[in-house]
Amino acid sequence: MTQYSASYDSRLIKNMEYDANGNLEYFGMAKSGTSDDDPGWFIMKMTYHTAEPNAKMATVRFAENGSLSQTWTGYANHNYS
């Protein structure tokens, strides 16, 4: 997996994690200044119809029902629904 971090807006931090095929698998946003270990992340997990590059997205699920109490470092272990 490839991790990418960006700050497009000085008020938000965005982290992204890609699968082996280059498809976006996890996307997280938090207020600027929030570390990866701090609660305060809104995280989504995407799944795809096939395991190929540029596959069509099948589902988007939210960590812990979209609460802002998640850490980015634990993204793979959160409950997504």
**Proportion of beta-strand residues:** 35-45%
Shape estimate: globular
- C-alpha Rg, in Å? 12 Å
The tally of structural domains comes to 1
Give the H and E element order.
EEEEE
Termini separation: 22 Å
Give the topology, please:
Blueprint: E1 2-9, E2 12-18, E3 24-31, E4 42-48, E5 57-62
Structure explained in plain terms:
The protein has one domain (2-77). The protein is 0% helix and 44% strand. The chain has strands at 2-9, 12-18, 24-31, 42-48, 57-62. The two termini are 22 Å apart. The chain contains no helices and five strands. It has a five-stranded antiparallel beta sheet with strand order 1-2-3-4-5, with no helix packed on it. By secondary structure, it is an all-beta fold.
Question: What descriptors fit this protein?
Answer:
mainly beta, 81 residues, 0% helix, 5 strands, 5-stranded antiparallel beta sheet
Summarize the structure.
The protein has 81 residues and is mostly beta strands. The chain has strands at residues 2-9, 12-18, 24-31, 42-48, 57-62.
